[in-house]
XK-related protein (Anabarilius grahami), 473 residues
Amino acid sequence: MENNKPSEHDITEVVAQQSAANPSENGVMMVINHSKVDPPFSVMWSTVLYCAEFICASVLISSYHKNEDVVWMGLTITFMLVPSVLTQLTLTFVHRDLGRDRPLVLLMHLLQMGPIIRCIEALVVYCQAGKKEEPYVTISRKIKLKHGKGLGPAFECEIGHSERKLAVHRNAFKRTAVIQAFLGSAPQLTLQLYATIQEKYILPTRLALMIISLISIIYGALVCSVLAIQIKYDDYKVRMKPAAYLCMILWRGLEIATRITTLVLFSSALRVWVILVGLTNLFFFFFQPWVEFWARKASLPDNIENNFSKLGTTVVLCMVTFLYACINIFCWSAVQLDLADHDLVEKQPRWRRLAIYYTVRFIENVTLIVLWYYFKTDFYVYVCTPLLVVQLIVCYSLAVLFMLLFHQFCHPCRRLFHYNVEDCLRCACCWRKKQSELPADHADGPQDHAPPDLTNHLTGRETDILDDIMEAA
């Protein structure tokens, strides 16, 4: 006998069509969304990176122990265990396991295998999703983006228990990916590259660990960039295209690889001075959010965690600020801290900071490379050092170029910018043209020249965007 009962997908389409024909009073389209849940690929990828780096580091530590390299072994153990312990604490804190009776999960965390059990839990939730009807937990309201513009009314989707649980797992692993990348993988890669230069030979295990660490750092930087986009454009349904991810990988990969190589080369020639460079960067980026916080005379955010006192909140903020400083030592963090906000993130990032950061970082990298060139050791006598200097400068310039290309052509919300890279260049060229024509105008008589309006040629674009947003509001 044929079953004529409509499927869940059909119900979704019928409700969406009826809602589009009869929108609610506030112009929001109601959609009952029981579509299939997306697989937790980010959770699995983070777990694979964590396990691969932990195993490679363990094998390399065993090799150091056999060769009695106590210094390299101790530092490798430190950069392996410290981020691993912080990862276990983060996952335990996010899932609130300390107040629940889960002895097996807590044991796995004590054995530094917390990401594995969390990944298994996420896969179990994904496999069980959609097998039985479940009430929704909350409703998500978003505006669809088409060709970079907000199009049509906002739509609401019901979020079920399974999707909610998977969202918690994804958010937890995003945090652990950033911690693992910049508190573990970045120092580990720097250490192993420095050890390779000092010992003048490459171990296969060490090379594998450096490759995995570099992939982990790039992934952590990608998470920061995507998180910054999602925070700023929280009202829109943002989807990244493959071209955007490719551009971001090239941008972040060149930036991080060039930065770490520069620091390692400089440390091989001026070992003591690299400590000063590192501490200067760390202290500057650590105290920058606190100085802005004190300058505004703001107060600590409430309800970061209900059980936290003022002291506990301050400790958490210091740990977040420390992570923020470590990220900015190696690459642009993309997310700006606001310690007075409940979410701890500035909702309106400043483009001026981006320009200042890359300008200062470029000057710093060039200075370190030039100093290394003049104080290098005899180890580099068989290396074409001028070519290496040029390559590092060109690679960092290419990283900046890919960053500009991403914001100009690949950013999912580039049409919502008040001005873009092309607009700034066009306005700068127009301003220079007016400056060159200024003496000729003065020959006819004195005239008042107003400063160039950076947003004058964007009036039509902003009007269209404003109309779309007003229709969706």
